Amino acid sequence: MFHTEEQIDRTDLLNSSVNNASYIDYRRKYYGNTMPDGRVLVFLTGFCIGMVFFYFSRGQNMSIQNSAAGLLNREHLVQLQNFEVDQSGFFAYVFGLRFRQLLFCIICSLCTIGGLLAYSIIGWYGFEAGFIIFSLVYQYGLKGAFLTFSMFLPHGVFYMAVFLIIFNKYWLSNTKCCHNEVTESSNGRHKKMENLKKILLILLLFITGVLCEIYVNPEIIRKMALFF
After folding, report:
1. % helix, strand, coil for the chain, step of 5
2. How far is the C-alpha of 18 from the C-alpha of 228, rounded, in Å?
3. Triad 195, 91, 117: Cα angle to 5°
4. Which phi-psi region, left, alpha or beta, contains residue 84 (left: φ > 0; alpha: ψ -120 to 50)?
5. Rounded mean pLDDT of 210-216?
6. Which of 125, 123, 119, 122 is nearest to 173 (CA)?
7. Residue 171: CB partners within 8 Å, gap ≥ 6?
8. Average per-residue pLDDT in the chain?
9. Would you place residue 18 in the very low, low, confident or very high pLDDT band (cuts 50, 70, 90)?
């Protein structure tokens, strides 16, 4: 049986594609083990900018520092030790606030510049984290760092997972993942099931985060306030 020139060219093309895909996978694994994730770099960059912003604003405008830690001064921390939360009103406020943020992230993920917006949001969160941490550390010392972490746990873990899932397509950039997405798109039913699972997972994590922020986090902050 003889191979035509077209068949030979097609075979060479397939072999070349396989070799390129293998090389890209190897390169991604190698650099993934030697270089930090881009999201981490963006967050740390924002964190450092927030730290520098706090350093320069500390001596020039103390009102900026007070606005960052004003709600957590010593008088308020003492009041939090015996503070009772109105669960119904607090639930309506937190759910409305977080739901608007969820819609904002979903809209950003559907934009043509969704990747840029995703990294911008990460950088902004890093800036806020750096500014708040150094503000509280400056005011309370090492206890300020623990107080900052208590403000975002455990609900922050669930919100972060929701954020990563919403912008999931912008984290998957290698050829293998793109190939899988093309293959799955050929099966409409499978794609619909995957989208449904993704939506359910986002809602589950979102609701869990809201409940933790309402019922768990206030108790953590109340316990933390006992050390001040």
Report:
1. 85, 0, 15
2. 62
3. 45
4. beta
5. 94
6. 119
7. 39, 164
8. 79
9. very low
If one counts every other C-beta atom within 10 angstroms of the C-beta of residue 153, the result is: 15
CA-to-CA dists, residue 168 to 16, 115, 161, 184, 191, angstroms: 29, 10, 10, 16, 15
- Nearest CA to 124 among 147, 145, 101, 140? 101
One DSSP character per residue, 18-81 reads: HHHHHHHHHHHHHHHHHS--HHHHHHHHHHHHHHHHHHHHHHH-HHHHHHHHGGGSHHHHHHHT
CA distance 154 to 213: 7
Q: What is the C-alpha to C-alpha distance for residues 218 and 89, in angstroms, rounded to an integer? A: 14
Locate tokens 């964190």: which residue? Answer: 47
For residues 169 and 204, give the distance between their C-alpha atoms in angstroms, rounded to a whole number. 20
Q: The tokens 């449904």 sit on which residue?
A: 196
Between 190 and 10, residue with greater pLDDT: 190
pLDDT tens readout for residues 80-117: 777 777 778 889 999 999 999 999 999 999 999 999 99
Q: Which residue carries 């060479």 as its tokens? A: 12
Q: Closest Cα to residue 20, out of 176, 225, 185, 194? A: 176
Please list, in sequence order, all residues whose beta carbon lies within 8 angstroms of the beta carbon of residue 54, skipping any fewer than 6 positions away: 65, 68, 130, 131, 134, 135, 138
Token pair in block for residue 144? 């300020």
